[in-house]
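Open question from group meeting: does this chain pack into something compact, or does most of it stay loose? Before anyone orders reagents, we agreed to write out a predicted structure and look at it together. Recording both the input and the output here so the notebook holds the full record.
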Amino acid sequence: MIRIEMIWLALGASDLRGGIDVLLAQVLRGFAGGAQAHHAYVFANRRADRLKVLVYDGVGMWLCTRRLQAGGFAWPRTGLDPGAGVFELTREQFDWLVAGLPWQRLSAPQPQRITAN
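Structure tokens returned:
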């Protein structure tokens, strides 16, 4: 199993047509410190019906894709673009997000917004 210590949600819409290299370039541009070992970076397309999760395990990169059969993911849409910043998610919020549930309604501590450089 891949160890994940922190989960980051990339705000705004991302172009998910590219692979690992395209998303890694976005991580290097938008996340403080670039790709960190045992961190996961979550991206969504414009319609928020597909997610890609990029994980650096300290040795190499992993890329996972998730698409719901119907509906979409609860993705922040407040006029944000790809360079707008990131949120740190808890594991429970991430589990709800990938299930298509409204993770923002959890009673767990709310994610912190961290602006991109």
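Observations to bring back to the group:
The chain has a mean pLDDT of 82.
Helices lie at 20-30, 91-98.
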